[in-house]
Amino acid sequence: MTLPVNGAERGFTPYDIGRTPATACRIDQRFSYCLYVPSRLVENPVGGRILAAVHGTDRGNQALRDLFIPYAEATGSIILAPLFPCGIGEPQERDNYKYIEYQGIRFDHLLLDMVAEVAARYGVDAGRFDLFGFSGGAHFAHRFLYLHPGRLRAVSVGAPGSPTLLDTGRLWWLGVADMEQRFGVPLDLDTMRKVRVHLAVGSDDTDTWEITHTPGSRHWMEGANDAGATRVERLHTLAASLADNGIDVRLDILDGFRHSRDALVGAAIAFLNRLAAEGGGDVST
Predict the structure, then answer these.
(1) Tens digits of per-residue pLDDT, 259-282?
(2) How many angstroms separate the CA atoms of 218 and 216, rounded?
(3) Class of domain 20-277
(4) In terms of Cα–Cα distance, which of 132, 128, 227, 109 is closest to 174?
(5) Calpha distance 138→156 (Å, rounded)
(6) Cβ–Cβ under 8 Å, residues 211 and 263
(7) Angle of helix 107-122 relative to helix 136-147, nearest 10 degrees?
(8) H or E segment to which residue 136 belongs
(9) d(CA 215, CA 174)
(10) Burial class of residue 134, CB neighbours in 10 A (0-12, 13-18, 19+)
């Protein structure tokens, strides 16, 4: 890729624009991220935003990033796609990032540091960014919303298998009764109500083998399956929980789709485009 006219003056190389190589997270180099950077942001970062896109259990962060390239070019957004590998801490461990904390690793803090690093490098605003998560990444995304609503402009949650409800009568991960004790962050519903929230799932996303919790399994808690049998049922339950707490939610059921990452990315882009057409502000504006 050809470097923009003033790119070299700002210390950039062709590897810093377009699809970037994987880069180690500076606070914990077991984790990394890749970017897509529109070339125009190298010339002039004013108005640039960050969209963090969090992979599912398959860890396909580069493929997920690439699905957002047209959106990045149209809006001047940097796409940040973290990689949270399997097998951190113990072999074949696949769920580490989904529940925010694992063996002392705070995956929310990792993402926040990646965002800060990218914002400083490219000179874009990192005060509030957009967040998308697919499947396991949607686990992460809606829980990140609970912990850091002030850092988000919008969040799109695509087909999570096991949602956390805004239920102060249940312990984490089913509810938020002990969220402050676990994470040192109180539940801030007023700030959450200012974030644009999008939930989406395919109408035919009805397989249950991966999301049914059984006694003795890693994330088993009494009531672990109460939100519903399928991802569709559970997302309806999550939407109702958010709405009951005064949070404005858009729920999209994608007719004819199963557990489709590409379809959910398309729904997220449509949601973000609607937000831009409305002026791009939070719910209060």
Answers:
(1) 999 999 999 999 999 998 887 655
(2) 7
(3) alpha beta
(4) 227
(5) 8
(6) no
(7) 80
(8) helix 136-147
(9) 15
(10) buried
